[in-house]
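Researcher: Batch entry, complex prediction.
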Amino acid sequence: MSTRQVGIKDVAAAAGVSIATVSQVLNNVAYARVGAETRDRVHQAARRLGYGPNRLAQALRTRRSDVIGVICEDMATAPNSGLVILGSVEAAKVRGYTIMIINAPGTGPDGSGDAGVATLMDRQVDGILYAAKGRRRLRVPAGLVGLPAVLVDAEDVGHSVSSVIPDEEGGARTAVQTLIDAGHTRIGMITSTDDVPEAHSRLLAFKDTLVDAGLEFRAELVQSEPSTDAAGGYRAALRLMQRDRRPTAVFCFNDLMAMGLYRAAAELGVSIPDELSVVGFDNQELIAGNLHPALTTVSLPHYEMGARAVEILIDAIEGNTGPGPLTALPAVLPCTLVARDSVAPPSGQAVTPWA
Amino acid sequence: MSTRQVGIKDVAAAAGVSIATVSQVLNNVAYARVGAETRDRVHQAARRLGYGPNRLAQALRTRRSDVIGVICEDMATAPNSGLVILGSVEAAKVRGYTIMIINAPGTGPDGSGDAGVATLMDRQVDGILYAAKGRRRLRVPAGLVGLPAVLVDAEDVGHSVSSVIPDEEGGARTAVQTLIDAGHTRIGMITSTDDVPEAHSRLLAFKDTLVDAGLEFRAELVQSEPSTDAAGGYRAALRLMQRDRRPTAVFCFNDLMAMGLYRAAAELGVSIPDELSVVGFDNQELIAGNLHPALTTVSLPHYEMGARAVEILIDAIEGNTGPGPLTALPAVLPCTLVARDSVAPPSGQAVTPWA
DNA sequence: ATGAAAGCGCTAACAG
DNA sequence: CTGTTAGCGCTTTCAT
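Model: Structure tokens for the complex:
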């Protein structure tokens, strides 16, 4: 803003060539056959003047802005939305793109980013990433369909937009299997009474993993609560732990509920992990890393989803995606176990007097 | 991308006027005196065709992109960086701007966003927001000085960039005063041994608030630890609580340390808030809201800083800032108390046998 | 091997 | 009151 921004024509003047030539050498145009010595002059002039291309002008001309719009539902409220943004920002950078971001209130069953889509398209973004607030399926804003777009952490009900989702069920199986592998046979679960997809899939994975391991599923060992925070976890845990034969391990719907379980255990004088193993879900670093003992949990691939979505999007934009439609099957990314200190083999001693 | 984007000339054709007229009515140019009936035709045509201006073309022509670049140090790692982003996104939207965001590794004593500044300037952003990772002072990237820029959560050592910072000390005073107001006279503190500015300012505020209230500052009632997480808080708390006369209330350096204090209290059988009041700092919702009892704490104005910074920036860009230099005193935003359930009057009973 | 010229979609003087 | 014209900074055909 101080000294007027140097442009291609300044470079041209300094190098004693035409602006066309400057453009060609600076962009390494294949067909342009420019003398080696000329190239040098141009490059040097550019460097000397501190030339940087005006990406707006380039975009106007080439009809490619190299910017990706990100619509984030309830940014900063949704836990870890920061990570999907970071993933997309970094993946974009690698490919020479930049992220333009807007927020969308995540209310109602439908995606709410309609105005957002328009805003971003006016700004000529090359494609749009819609980061949903962890709902399974949603109806994407009408404006989205037809243009390069990918949905993160949700699938479009109309299957008209491709998406990147976590392998929820695999993650839950991993969690339960971790407990089984540690030697537990009497495993409980604390979960949500809400009719949300995660609740179903995690419960299902819990059952399946148990029976796959030849273990019995006992309905009385799963306790649910409407609120999936620490308070809910505490109440569910109390019910679970105050029965005749309590489990030696429990799988929690999320880290917050696990936090409630920790409190219940402390009050009942049962020690984690010696007398009770626990694994959570979500890997909320702040919680999982600061509970005592640190919570073993399953991590949702937030960063990876953001990054992957951007890659898919850019491939689509640049046409590297082959002739097939953008709308293939959703990319499903693994949820990995983050092992900390809350899992141990069951203690030798009987957990209850008569067991 | 399907049907070629409609442009100003399509509207002109549809309305039977020239593109200049369209531009003028759509932009409400003051001096342009266009017939009311013509205006209507234009507006209708525009609406009917679903016209949206190509903001890139506008920007190229007007030399104003209406986009603000945000450089975020360690986005998503820094706690609550999501909130400053959200604040800036929403404030920008109100003024018709959009946010373009990039990440910068927050290592070393200096701001690391040099490349980032260049990237953003190439994209013709109108100004830059540099969101630091909660360090007090830093040397901003050289490219920043001279252009519209504001620093969030830090001050430039060269005072060449204006900034928005939290009233750390005021927040700490509020925290301590809350305890005093509840009737406590024997108040402890758990803090960091690190030589970081927050540690100094919070400790100072602690002392000052005490003496201002006519209370005695006792060095033995402040316990520090190098690690400011729950583990550190636990260790410090143990030392603090196992003395002859323990405090009836404690002010914690942050919510994580408070979390450690909760554990220590539980183990020692002292009940919060009946026998011990506690107030934290940071308002990490996930922690503070899920501890039991919920933690009363002081909130850092992350969202507000982002929003305020954008407003300052836009004022500077649009020249509403008066003749004065952009680099005025830093804007300091209040840290407010978030009252939850961890503070109560001191219990009537003596805390120790002989007290 | 290099340059002239047209034009991306829009705004801002200025002319009618 | 409205239209013509000249660019913003760049890329890309097409001449030379």
